[in-house]
Amino acid sequence: MKHILFILTLFLFTGCLIGGYPTGQITLAVVDEDGNPLTGIEAGTSWSRNTTSNPFDGQTGTGQDAMVDEYGKATFSASAHRNVGYGAEAPGYYRSIGSYEFTGFKNGKWQPWNPTVTLRVRKIGEPIAMYAKNIPRFTLPAHEVSYDLIKGDFLPPHGKGETADCIFTAEIERKGKVREENGSFFSQNLTVSVPGDFNGLSAIAANAVVAESAFRLPRHAPAEGYARQSFGVYFHSRLFIEKGPGRTVNRRRVDTARRTPEADHFFFRIRSETNPDGTFKSTLYGKLRGPLKCAGYSQRTGKRGENHPRRLRLLRQPHPQRPQYGV
To answer: Taking the model in full, what pTM does it have?
Structure first.
């Protein structure tokens, strides 16, 4: 059971902890995907505390394991930091983990006292092997470039991809000077589109994601609702430089960011084939696990102040390695 838990690395400087840690208590309620209590599953928690009164001397962890009762619940307690990690697993189920943070303490007890935390555990169905690409970040080599999702590379001349499964289009603009009244601004707009009939992206609703599970996204892709151009990232940054008291200079930056739609994960449908009469024949489905982020930057070479065209860097929030299954 120890391998399903994790130690939270914390450095707390609260003076009240020098004389000892408050006691925390938490109850885990393990349920299936439909919210029904599960029995015969082992659950556990992981607590941490400083080795000495000096927080820089490191920390020690305490792990606790227990089988849930007939209602799918198990209660744990320890004198430790305010954060507690928890998890559950069993044969035939995907591992689920999470963390909880108490809000404060009273009379030597972390508050709220003994909260019930629901942990969803998903049953393993009939796994289907899929192509899995882990791409933490890459730089767009041009303002519009095609990408091969199976090869995991751009199309020539920027890479060795063969099929344009999706197209990244970046619009980047920079105007003004920071010392002008309206300041300077830098804006960027990234659009991801999927070409071809019947192809596209479909946003996954937040309530359909089981974030605590090793298998977090829905099992089945929808048959309809795919848009060729359904994901965009917009970022606008304005920088002001203002004179402060004496010879000081104040820098003030205002950032605005939004995504369309406001979704972290997507289904995609690519390489669709049609019958001679134009009806749908076959396709490839997949999942894009995000969230996706983008950041612009400029390359400076040669003489000072010589700016080369700004490029766009696409970031995908990295996640721990997890099984890549279809169901």
So the answer is: 0.70
